[in-house]
Specification:
With 415 residues, the protein is an alpha/beta fold. The protein contains 13 helices and twelve strands. The chain is 50% helix and 13% strand. Helix 12 runs antiparallel to helix 13.
């Protein structure tokens, strides 16, 4: 009778955990029509060689809808000089003339996108700045800023590192040169530069197309934020193999975004209008990516939870990230209970002798403590597999302790 009551209670606890998980998950999403949605539009790699076809399409978008966007401009390029040798040249005048009036009117906000946009290493992790000495970084960024400030008669305060890669030297150089905004991604180092606004990209154009099909999206305080990164080679007209969208489809998507009342803005505009780009939000959105990686892929294939992937595409508020953390704790608590139930069933079926229980508990406790110290002091990432291993050991330990209590309650020795 007692065992039946205990099992009923555990089943009730499992159902409560599942219910709380569902409630917290759905509380992240609200009707997109009842809130203000901001799409920060970031077009990278504008240069002497970038596609005029795509850029004229973007300018046409700005003209039609009177919106704004950010251009990540590569200030210099390497080309053959008069002697036939390769030399460094500033961006072509024709490219300056093409967008200068848009910059003056505020339709285009400029972000410096490196110096030459040429990688300084031979690894797969391409970068123009990370790992480069401070003085070299400072000289490149200063030369880029001086050139573009002069050509566009403006003061540029946004930096978009090539391949979204930078380091602490980069931030120190930007600080000295009075930059305020850094737009890369959420995968950079854990820096504490509080004077910067961090506006990492969160979505590709293919993600935006998918999000448009959902009636409910992640919203907090009637506000939702995405940062789109797009290049000319994302268009099939430029790269027929790897392109993810063509110009007619681009027009349809932008038309639909405008019809829905979403705000398409530049990096500088977003910083002025949205209070969500400080170092605290940046760190929490980095944490968000790690938290989401803990949830298994099969969960995202369940129709009820298919929007897990969408959470990657939004720049979330502190409370939204806190909800994801609560979801993860509920998920692992459920795993812990279920694993414990499985081990308890095995122990009772095997009739383990009482004298083996204490050594087993000691071994399991020692394993948990040892692994925890290893993860803490070895700078080891506490990922999904590591957490699952800890849950298995912890579940086995709690079920063993429970089994010991069961033996004592029964007042007999299992043989």
């Amino acid at each position: 009778m007692r065992q039946s009551i205990i099992k009923s209670r555990r089943l009730l606890i499992i159902l409560i955990i599942i219910g709380l998980f569902v409630l917290v998950f759905f509380s992240l999403f609200k009707d997109r029509n009842a809130s203000e949605v901001f799409l920060v539009f970031r077009y990278d790699d504008y240069s002497s060689e970038s596609s005029l076809l795509i850029e004229r399409e973007i300018l046409d978008m700005l003209d039609r809808y009177e919106m704004s966007c950010s251009f990540g401009i590569i200030p210099y390029s390497i080309e053959p000089g008069n002697s036939g040798e390769k030399e460094i040249f500033p961006i072509k005048n024709s490219k300056i003339t093409l967008i200068k009036e848009y910059v003056r009117e505020g339709s285009i906000n400029i972000g410096i996108h490196g110096f030459l946009h040429i990688t300084t290493n031979n690894t797969e992790s391409k970068t123009e700045f990370a790992g480069v000495p401070y003085k070299e970084q400072f000289d490149k960024i200063r030369a880029s800023k001086n050139l573009l400030d002069s050509l566009f008669e403006t003061k540029i305060i946004s930096f978009i590192p090539p391949w979204n890669s930078y380091d602490e030297h980069t931030l120190n150089a930007l600080k000295t040169l009075s930059f305020l905004n850094v737009s890369a991604d959420n995968g950079q180092g854990d820096y504490n530069e509080r004077q910067f606004n961090f506006i990492p990209f969160t979505a590709y154009f293919s993600d935006i197309k998918k999000i448009l099909e959902y009636r409910k999206i992640p919203i907090h305080n009637n506000l939702s934020v995405m940062v789109l990164m797009i290049h000319d080679y994302d268009f099939r007209e430029i790269d027929s193999t790897s392109g993810i969208i063509d110009i007619p489809e681009f027009r349809k998507v932008i038309d639909r975004i405008v019809q829905m009342g979403w705000n398409i803005v530049s990096i500088d505009q977003a910083v002025e209008m949205i209070n969500r780009f400080d170092i605290g939000h940046y760190k929490l959105n980095r944490l968000k990516l790690n938290l989401l990686n803990h949830f298994p892929g099969y969960m995202k294939n369940i129709s009820m939870f298919e929007k897990f992937d969408v959470l990657d595409d939004f720049y979330l508020s502190n409370s939204q990230v806190a909800k994801i953390l609560i979801l993860l704790l509920l998920y692992y608590l459920l795993i812990l209970i279920l694993i414990g139930e499985v081990f308890a069933f095995i122990l009772r079926k095997m009739h383990i002798n009482k004298r083996f229980i204490f050594p087993l508990i000691f071994v399991l406790c020692f394993s948990i403590v040892s692994l925890s110290f290893y993860f803490l002091y070895d700078d080891h990432s506490l990922g999904r597999h590591e957490c699952m291993g800890l849950m298995i050991i912890a579940g086995a330990m709690f079920s063993t302790i429970d089994y010991l209590s069961f033996i004592r309650r029964e007042g007999r020795k299992i043989v």
